[in-house]
Design brief:
Two copies of one chain form a homodimer. With 752 residues, chain A is α+β, with helices and mostly antiparallel strands. Chain A has 25 helices and 23 strands. Chains A, B: InterPro entries: ATP-grasp, Gln_synth/guanido_kin_cat_dom, Glu_cys_ligase, Glut_biosynth, Glut_cys_ligase, GshAB_ATP-grasp.
Chain lengths: 752, 752
């Protein structure tokens, strides 16, 4: 049975790009002050390492390990890594950043604190490794690239293979990939090697010149020379590692370090019966030119490289050919960054295989471009990562470069801190909730991105969340009640909460007959299902019968039912109530500018729009103020033009409505609002039976206290799925955290 | 302080029609077999009389008392009565009906079983009454009309009254109404009296001729002559009743029978401090020409009459004038049905007052019509109820008439038994749930009719229900998950339930790149949010690439995302799962007819459409089969014209789709479906975390059993808010009760 030439036999339409991916990236936390590894413990905000699926520590306490979940595409994997990196960066002390290079900055053995984990085995294992390899060597960081070939792709291969057992087939397939990976590892080292120098004293013997990748050479973090593992067969591979463990050359199977490892079971021997399920490629140095340590193009080039490994035949004389390949890799790893590939490198074999895969399966043009990039990098070493890094070496050091890049990356993470990088297309509240989930180590899966539908889980406990706060904590019928203004009012009124008096009509004659009852009152006439304020008439003074009739016609044009309600004068506040407690109070005021005695209104708007919280299309917590027709008319009505200079302290409103979406300001007044109103709002929500609810209260005079008997306010609306981000990132006021509280209530077992 | 001339002082726009209403109607259950009062106990299906708010028994076990909740209009009150009557009629033994007349059929004292109530006081009170008045007299039935004048109307009156205390004002107002009601009671007796004869032996002395209303005369159910109650003042009224109770002339205040009573407190004396709140007018005989015992026009005429009582001054010499009026009423009650009003009746006063009210307040023309009807009835006694009833008296008996009317009413109640009379405009499932609630004595309030939003309650326990089964029993996020096909599939697939394999695409190129994976399969291409089947392409055999691409274009024209799924062949069944248990299984088949060897297809359709379950626009459990363009084309494709005669037993489909809404048949196969499928469907719903859920399974061969490992079926959809009525009223099969189970789970404290 042979595993060669299988790919060649597949139909060109076979889904060979089908695969799943996982990435792991290590990186050191660096203190800005000491300019070396941070002495602080793993950030407390990152929850518990005993279960955190995404953010762990590797060997030492400051060495973060960022782990993506399994992704169905390399793009998704990089997106996961983007978000996890963003969370890690923003969970660290603001005086720290992530080191962007595989080789650490200058550090002393005693600066390196072994990771302070709960598991005593993991701690003692790290002490053993420290003893054996030295703590400095362990500080080298890189990226692991895990790939599992697609189910349908493997099924196609299996079909043409002639194998009887799919387990045996997959084992041979992945073994062949591992063999060929080692055979052609030197190409990856040439292209992506990025560990050209060690700080003085890092190596036992300082190198005389720059190289491509210390980490990928024998000077890297490698096993002792007496650890020899066979790739002749899977049985030999398993046996030789077991032998090393049995006679103490290795303390455990996982101490076997290799640029590539077979994966899928805890114990290697299980592969023989259960099968290898994926490949772990461990050789990638951190790409310092990419803030994630690896780029999309690199991920896809590796994928193409792996498919080429499958296209190529297996080595004939496995051990011998792999030894030769290892030597070649060592040589290239220790060659100068600007040195070309040696002639003996079997470059043509692998490049031809890549081209053949592209052609046979008519891969998208993108892969042709990737291959062309490789050819250019082969032709010109300056285009490789090491080649591009070389000019940044100053005084035989990359410390200044690393510091600059690291701080740039950290600053970038803190721009638009309301957004979760990689997920900016989702709603802000969902981004914030996802940030919190990743931070606390709660598993997440986006079941439907456009629907903002998340699955969150910890161990066996699953919670589904839609739009940030639609959860199992609310019951079904109550949000449906809140979606209906008439029903909401009836329920609140029955429990003697203050709501505007009024009536509903679906017949114009009946609505006209109601006139006597409202003829002396300020009223609002509105369609029952108001959409964006259409069809609403407000009479701040009593309406004449013709005016009332006209308002009825306007409202009936929008809906078959309308409401005639008392108009309530006063200021509107939004109370965010969660699980019976008011967590935030917001005042929204119309878009406005305040004069400084020098600037025109137009300039003041521009200045105000500089606030990084202001953006467009709900991608930011606040919207940029426009100077459109409505705003210009509003200015004109007040006797201004946009070019008028405003005296210091003079405030001019640019809108009548106070919506955030039209440039309004959000003012967090949670701490200033009298407790009596917060309690009343919470009581309303409890009476309604809702869990997460936004309560809109009109308060004429908030210096007075509220009570059940004298509420001094009126509830004009209850909102299901209330906005959360607007309470957190405010134009004014401290802002209140909401999504974190949602999460803590969903997972009290780990977050309370 | 005087209460006269107040109405005259009000502005014409004062809301004088504002009032709330309540109706009580008594009626005897009659056995078809014995043709006299039923000997059966109060129907068990009507829940417990200890708390039933709507359906009670009056004095005797067969005397039903139907009680409406307080209604905001007479129309709403009559609608309540319509529904409650419908429920009462359909909860009785099919061999019984309600007696439509105030005077009972021939009965013997020993036939009358005193109501078998739980409360020992109520039972002994009834025994005392039986002793005192005789059980026969207690069998007379009537309608009580309760009215409370509107809040704003009373406020307007109070404003012009000069009174300082609103309680005193209201007391004087309602006392005046009561005084004037007794003064003009004779008019109501003339118009609505409908108790012309008693069956032989009913009265101590048989009457020689027909009269207007035995029940409204002194021969009716009246207190002994030593019970004299003063209407001079409220204090005198309270005191004189108390005196009767204290010296034993009455056993309790409620034993005081009068055509009108002041109401609002349990003890009359409380009126002095808390105020009378409404008026109970007790004099109305059952109108045998209306199946509810009273008509809309009568209700509104009474309302106009009461407003006229308010327009008129109070009596000057209360006791004297009321005595005179009582005598007049007695005389008219015992006059012949075709006898005109005596000249001494102060007809002009009351008619003029009615006209004045109509004119002063510009009441709608409808009230003018009502007044005109009174004038016509006054002019021609044959137009009064007694006058119209007179011709039906045969052999000095109304038994035949009563039997006919009673049975007609009962038959009418059983037509369209899926509907709740009065609420036919609501969704069928909501009508059925309301029926169940009224039957079991659960309070209901329709918070929003067009939104199908109900409030149900028993004591302090409130449940809200929307669309029949959207309740607090489901949590918020799960129905939202079920509304999203992709999310539903992911959740089911993660738990290893059978769902069609497939993928979601929002990019055409990616969808095209997927072709290799489906190129040999039967597939469905559909927009992610399918609406009415638009944009769906089914390939029962593998699609060519151009056909696949066209299907993508069609789907993308409907939505920005589409699904490509395996096409699953087999029969689709709907499983209704509630609270972890499958309660019903339905097979839906396309609209079809089966030949009888004689009729044409057109005739067969007509015959099938005669089924009372078939109607139009979802007002019935099944829809009438159309012979429109689609059906004709379908016939043509099978080589038929609508006028072709079909051989016996030949079935011809008229539609390809099996929707009930296009004339399809519903077949209840709950009892035939193998338990293994019901359990699998229930397991899916439990895994999903839903309470009420419709599971659509495709089963290729239901002679095989289902299991978790070999499901032998595929779930193509989970439905939140699944239809319930279609399981209950089926074209074929026994039908399953669902709404009753919903209710029992909502109120287990009384229904389990």
């Amino acid at each position: 049975m042979t595993i060669n030439q299988l790919l060649q036999q597949l139909e060109p339409t076979s889904p060979i790009l089908q695969a799943s991916f996982g990435l792991e990236r290590e990186s050191l936390r660096i203190s800005k002050q000491s300019q070396t590894v941070a002495q602080t413990p793993h950030p407390v905000s990152l929850g518990a390492r005993s279960y955190h699926p995404y953010i762990q520590t590797d060997y030492s306490e400051p060495q973060l390990e960022l782990i993506t979940p399994v992704a169905q595409s390399s793009k998704e994997a990089l997106r996961f890594l983007t978000a996890i990196t963003d969370v890690a960066q923003r969970s660290m002390d603001r005086e720290e950043y992530l080191w962007p290079l595989s080789m650490p900055p200058k550090l002393e053995e005693e600066d390196i604190r072994i990771a302070d984990l709960d598991d005593p085995f993991e701690v003692s294992y790290r002490h053993y490794l420290a003893e054996k390899y030295g703590k400095k060597l362990q500080s080298m960081s890189g990226v692991h690239y895990n790939i599992e070939l697609g189910k349908d792709f493997i099924a196609d291969l299996f079909r043409v293979s002639g194998y009887a057992s799919e387990v045996h087939f997959k084992n041979d397939l992945y073994l062949k990939l591992a063999q060929n990976f080692i055979r052609y590892h030197w190409l990856l080292t040439y292209l992506y090697g990025a560990a050209p120098i060690a700080q003085q004293g890092f190596l036992k013997e300082d190198l005389t010149d720059c190289v491509r990748s210390i980490r990928n050479s024998d000077l890297g973090y490698v096993n002792d020379s007496d650890v020899q593992v066979s790739y002749e067969s899977l049985e030999a591979y398993v046996q030789s590692i077991e032998d090393c463990v049995n006679d103490g050359r290795l303390i455990a199977e996982k101490e076997f370090y290799s640029p590539v490892r077979l994966r899928g079971s805890k114990h290697n021997r299980d592969y023989l019966t259960q099968g290898v399920t994926y490949l772990e490629c461990r050789s990638f140095d951190l790409d310092p030119f990419h803030h994630l340590g690896i780029s999309q193009e690199t991920l896809d080039t590796i994928h193409l490289f792996i498919l080429a490994l499958l296209w190529l035949d297996s080595p004939q004389q496995v051990t011998k050919e792999l030894e030769t390949a290892k030597d070649l890799n060592h040589q290239i790893a220790l060659s100068h960054p600007l040195e070309a590939l040696p002639d003996k490198a079997p470059l043509k074999d692998i490049l031809t295989a890549m081209a053949a895969v592209i052609q046979h399966f008519s891969l998208p043009h993108y892969y042709q471009d990737l291959l062309q990039q490789i050819e250019q990098q082969v032709a010109d070493p300056r285009l490789t990562v090491a080649g591009r890094l070389y000019p940044h070496i100053q005084n035989h050091s990359l410390e200044d470069f690393g510091r600059l890049k690291g701080q740039q990356n950290q600053d970038q993470a803190w721009t638009a801190p309301y957004a979760l990088k990689g997920y900016e297309s989702m709603e802000l509240s969902t981004q914030m909730l996802l940030f919190d989930a990743i931070q606390k180590g709660i598993h997440f899966d986006i079941l439907d991105e456009s629907d903002q539908f998340l699955k969150l889980w910890h161990q066996d406990h699953i919670e589904y969340v839609k739009n940030g706060n639609m959860t199992a904590k609310d019951n079904y019928v109550i949000p449906l009640a809140m979606a209906n203004k008439v029903v909401t009012k009836k329920i609140l009124a029955e429990q003697h909460f203050p709501v505007p008096a009024g009536a509903e009509f679906s017949d114009k004659q009946e609505a006209l007959a109601y006139y006597p009852l409202i003829k002396n009152k300020a009223i609002v006439v509105k369609p029952k299902s108001t959409n964006f304020g259409l069809g609403i008439s407000i009479f701040e003074e009593a309406a004449s019968l013709p005016a009332y009739e006209k308002a009825l016609d306007i409202a009936f044009a929008e809906d078959t039912s309308l409401l005639v309600e008392d108009y309530i004068a006063g200021t509107e506040y939004r109370f965010f109530v969660l699980d019976g407690k008011c967590e935030a109070v917001l005042l929204r005021v119309a878009a406005n500018v305040v004069g400084d005695g020098r600037s025109s209104i137009r300039q003041l708007v521009e200045q105000k729009n500089q606030n990084p919280l202001r953006g467009q299309d709900h991608r930011s917590p606040l919207e940029k103020i426009q100077l459109g027709a409505i705003e210009l008319l509003m200015l004109e009505q007040q006797g201004y033009t946009p070019d008028d200079r405003l005296a210091e302290g003079v405030q001019v409103d640019l809108r009548r409505n106070s919506n955030i979406s039209t440039g309004g300001d959000s003012i967090d007044i949670t701490n200033d609002m009298d407790t009596s109103y917060k309690e009343l709002a919470a009581d309303m929500v409890k009476a309604m039976g809702a869990w997460a609810c936004g309560v809109d209260l009109i308060i004429p005079d908030r210096s007075k206290k509220a009570s059940r008997t004298e509420p001094n306010c009126t509830c004009i609306e209850l909102n299901f799925n209330p906005s959360m981000y607007m309470h957190t990132y405010c134009h004014e006021g401290p802002g209140q955290i909401i999504t974190g509280k949602i999460l803590a209530k969903l997972f009290p077992e780990i977050l309370s």
